[in-house]
Design a protein that fits this description.
Strand 8, helix 10 and strand 9 form a beta-alpha-beta unit. The strands form 3 sheets. Strands 6-8-9-10-7-11 form a 6-stranded mixed beta sheet. It is elongated, with a radius of gyration of 42 Å. Helices cover 47% and strands 11% of the residues. It has 4 domains: 99 residues, name from scop (3-Layer(aba) Sandwich); 182 residues, 3-Layer(aba) Sandwich (Rossmann fold); 71 residues, Helicase, Ruva Protein, domain 3 (Orthogonal Bundle); 197 residues, Up-down Bundle (Methane Monooxygenase Hydroxylase, Chain G, domain 1), CATH 1.20.58. It contains 25 helices and 14 strands. The longest helix has 28 residues. Helix 14 crosses helix 16 and helix 18 runs antiparallel to helix 19.
Length: 644
C-alpha cells in the first residue's frame, strides 16, 4: 500500500509545549513534593475541636507549620458513633486507628496554645507537638530556578531573532541573510515603462541590466563590467522605484534588502549576513544585489565614534568593502545601492572599483512632472477636461512621491464631496492640503488678530506683485491651516542658477508681512517667525556659501563633501565672524526698509486689498490684477517687445 507523500507532513515542534511542561513540573513538585498535610483526614472547625477536647476524646494534637492542626482521637472516642466518619476504612478495608483523624486551621497560634495550656490545667490528658514540614523537592528545584529562567529567556530571544517560527532549527539562522530574492519566477510587474521621468538615471540603470544580459558585448573590447552603482537623491525622487524596475527587467536573480537588515544586537551578525548575502549571489550569478538606505551601515569610519575600533557597524562595513572588491571578487555580481545622504558615506565605499557609478536622481522638472502625473492618474477617474500641463506647473519642487500623494489626496477629497470624477479644483485643494495643512475654520481668533493677519498676508502679496524677480502670487488666505494663521501660495520660477537680485527680491517679499504691520500699526508681532527664519538662511548663504558679498569676497565656508567636521570651532577668525554677522544684518535690514518704502507708496491699495481679504477670507491672482493692475515690469517687457 503506497502512501501519498503530499499528505504525510512532518509536525512542527511547538516550543510552547516546553513552557507548558515547565509549569506542570513546578505544579507537581508543589502538590506531591512531600507535603505531609495533604491526607484523607476529615476537616473540622476550632469549635468542634474545643468540644472534643473538653470531653477528653483527644489523644494528641500536632501543629504543622504553625497554621494546621492534626488531631488524633483516643480508643474510646473512636468507638463512639459521633466519630464514625473519622473512623473510616481504606481501600483494603483497614480502619484508620493511628490517625490523624481530624485537621483544621488554628488561626492565631498564641491563642490556640493558650487554650491547650488551659485544658492541661483542668486535668485533661492529651499530648501536643509542633512540627515544621519542608517540601524538599520544591526547594531543590528552586535552587536551579535562575538557571532555568536564563535558559528560557535565551531560547525565547534567539527564536525571536531568527524570525519567530516554530522550529528550533531557526535559532541557528540568525547570521543568515534577510535578502528577498526576485527572479524570473517572481511576479514583478514594475518595469522601466512605469518609471516616468528620470531619463538620465533610467539610461544608466538600463545599461547595468544590459551588462548582465549581454556581457560579451562590452567585454570583447577589453572593458570590465561595473561592480556597483549608487543611486543618490532626495527622498521620494524614485530611487527604490528604479530598483524595482531593475528587478522586473533584469531577468536575473535580484536580491533586495535594506541597510538596517544587517544591524543586529549580537556581535558579528552583520558581517555574517554580508558574507551569506554575497555567497548566495555568487551561487546564482550573474545577479544583482540592491541595498536600500546603505548609509545605515556605510557611514564614514572613525567619525564621531564613541564605541572604539571594534564597533559592530564598522565590522559590517569592512566585510562589505571586502566582498565588493577583495581577493575573491566575482565580477558577475553587481551591487546597486540607494541613499539620501551620500555625504556621510565612507570614502572607501565610494571609490572606483566598488561603486563605479554615482547616479543622481534629481527632482523632476515640469515635463517630467507631467509624465509622473500621467502614470498616477491611470487608476483615478478624472474629469475629461483635466489639464495635466496645468497640474505640472502648479507643483514646482514636488518629488514623484509628492505627486503620487497629490493624486491620492485629490481622489479622497472628491470622494468626500460625493463627486463622480476628480476635477481640477480637487487637485488644487489637494496641493493646498499638502503644502499648508488642513483648514481650521473653527479656530478661535479675535478681530484684532484677524486684522493683523490680513494686513500681514496683504503685505506679502503687495511686495511680491511689485518686484520683478519675486514669485508671482496664486492665492492668499487668512483661514488658519496647519500651524499657520494665514498663508500665501506662489508659483516660483524654476531656475538652475539664481542671481543676487533674485535672492534679494525674494527676501524683500518675505519681509513684506512684517513691513505691512509696521506701516499700518506702527507695531510688529511674532507672526513673522517663519519669514525671518527663511531670510536669515538666505542672507547667511549669500555671505558664507555663495560668495555674493563684497566685504567677504569670493570665499565660501561650505564643504560639499561633508568630511570636514569643525565641531565647536569655525573655519574663520573671530574678526571675520563679526563681519559676517554685520553683513547678514545689513542685507536683511536693507530689504526690510525696501519693503516698507514700497508699502508706504501703495498704502491705499494695501488697505483695499486687506479689507477685501477680511471680507472674502481667500483671494486669487485676479483680485490683485483688479486692484493693482498688471505687474509693472510685465508692462515694461510688453512695451519693449512691441517696439521690436
Amino acid at each position: 500500500m503506497s502512501k501519498n507523500k503530499n499528505t504525510m507532513k512532518t509536525p512542527k515542534f511547538n516550543t510552547y509545549w516546553i513552557y507548558a511542561m515547565i509549569v506542570l513540573f513546578f505544579a507537581s513538585t508543589y502538590f506531591i513534593g512531600g507535603n505531609e498535610t495533604s491526607n484523607s483526614s476529615k476537616k473540622i472547625n476550632i469549635s468542634s475541636f474545643e468540644r472534643f477536647l473538653n470531653k477528653g476524646e483527644i489523644k494528641s494534637v500536632t501543629v504543622i507549620n504553625k497554621n494546621i492542626a492534626q488531631v488524633t482521637l483516643n480508643r474510646d472516642a473512636l468507638n463512639s458513633p459521633d466519630h464514625k466518619s473519622a473512623n473510616s476504612t481504606n481501600f483494603l478495608g483497614q480502619k484508620n486507628l493511628n490517625g490523624p483523624h481530624y485537621v483544621f486551621e488554628i488561626g492565631n497560634l498564641e491563642l490556640f496554645q493558650n487554650k491547650l495550656e488551659e485544658a492541661e490545667k483542668k486535668g485533661i490528658q492529651f499530648g501536643y507537638d509542633f512540627k515544621t514540614v519542608e517540601n524538599k523537592l520544591l526547594d531543590y528545584v528552586l535552587g536551579f530556578l535562575p538557571l532555568i529562567i536564563l535558559i528560557g529567556l535565551w531560547f525565547f530571544f534567539m527564536r525571536r531573532m531568527s524570525g519567530g517560527g516554530g522550529g528550533g532549527s531557526q535559532i541557528f539562522s540568525i547570521g543568515k541573510s534577510k535578502a528577498k530574492l526576485f527572479d524570473e519566477k517572481s511576479d514583478i510587474k514594475t518595469t522601466f515603462k512605469d518609471v516616468a521621468g528620470l531619463e538620465g538615471a533610467k539610461e544608466e540603470v538600463q545599461e547595468i541590466v544590459d551588462f548582465l544580459k549581454n556581457p560579451t558585448k562590452y567585454t570583447k573590447l577589453g572593458g570590465k563590467i561595473p561592480k556597483g552603482a549608487l543611486l543618490v537623491g532626495l527622498p521620494g525622487t524614485g530611487k527604490t522605484l528604479l530598483a524595482k524596475a531593475v528587478a522586473g527587467e533584469a531577468k536575473v536573480p535580484f536580491f533586495s534588502l535594506s541597510g538596517s537588515d544587517f544591524v543586529e544586537m549580537f556581535v558579528g551578525v552583520g558581517a555574517s549576513r554580508v558574507r551569506d548575502l554575497f555567497k548566495q549571489a555568487k551561487e546564482k550569478s550573474p545577479s544583482i544585489i540592491f541595498i536600500d538606505e546603505i548609509d545605515a551601515i556605510g557611514r564614514a569610519r572613525g567619525k564621531s565614534n564613541m564605541t572604539g575600533g571594534n564597533d559592530e557597524r564598522e565590522n559590517t562595513l569592512n566585510q562589505l568593502l571586502t566582498e565588493m572588491d577583495g581577493f575573491g571578487t566575482n565580477t558577475n555580481v553587481i551591487v546597486i545601492a540607494a541613499t539620501n545622504r551620500a555625504d556621510v558615506l565612507d570614502k572607501a565605499l565610494m571609490r572606483a572599483g566598488r561603486f563605479d557609478r554615482q547616479i543622481y536622481v534629481d527632482l523632476p522638472d515640469v515635463r517630467e512632472r507631467k509624465e509622473i502625473f500621467n502614470v498616477h492618474l491611470k487608476p483615478i477617474k478624472i474629469s475629461k477636461n483635466l489639464d495635466t500641463d496645468f497640474l505640472a506647473k502648479q507643483t514646482p519642487g514636488f518629488s514623484g512621491a509628492d505627486i503620487a500623494n497629490v493624486c491620492n489626496e485629490a481622489a479622497l477629497i472628491a470622494a468626500r464631496k460625493l463627486k463622480k470624477s476628480v476635477n481640477k479644483q480637487d487637485f488644487l485643494d489637494a496641493v493646498d492640503r499638502i503644502v499648508g495643512g488642513l483648514e481650521k475654520k473653527n479656530k478661535i481668533i479675535t478681530e484684532t488678530e484677524k486684522k493683523t493677519i490680513a494686513f500681514h498676508e496683504a503685505g506679502h502679496a503687495t511686495v511680491s506683485w511689485m518686484l520683478e524677480h519675486a514669485a508671482p502670487l496664486v492665492k492668499v488666505t487668512i483661514v488658519p491651516r496647519g500651524q499657520s494663521l494665514g498663508a500665501a501660495w506662489y508659483l516660483p520660477e524654476e531656475r538652475q542658477i539664481v542671481k543676487t537680485e533674485q535672492i534679494l527680491d525674494e527676501m524683500c517679499a518675505a519681509l513684506g508681512g512684517r513691513a505691512a504691520e509696521k506701516v499700518m500699526f506702527n507695531n510688529i508681532s511674532t507672526g513673522a517667525l517663519s519669514d525671518l527664519e527663511k531670510v536669515t538662511k538666505q542672507a547667511r548663504s549669500m555671505v558664507t556659501v555663495y560668495g555674493l558679498n563684497d566685504k567677504i569676497g569670493n570665499l565660501t565656508y561650505y564643504d560639499s563633501s561633508g568630511q570636514n567636521d569643525y565641531g565647536f570651532t569655525k573655519p574663520y577668525s573671530d574678526v571675520t565672524a563679526e563681519i559676517i554677522d554685520k553683513e547678514i544684518s545689513n542685507i536683511i535690514e536693507t530689504q526690510y526698509q525696501r519693503a516698507i518704502k514700497l508699502l508706504k507708496k501703495h498704502k491705499n491699495k494695501l488697505i483695499e486689498l486687506a479689507n477685501f481679504l477680511l471680507e472674502k477670507e481667500v483671494i486669487f491672482k485676479e483680485d490683485l490684477v483688479r486692484i493693482y493692475g498688471e505687474r509693472p515690469f510685465e508692462i515694461k517687457t510688453a512695451i519693449k517687445e512691441s517696439k521690436k
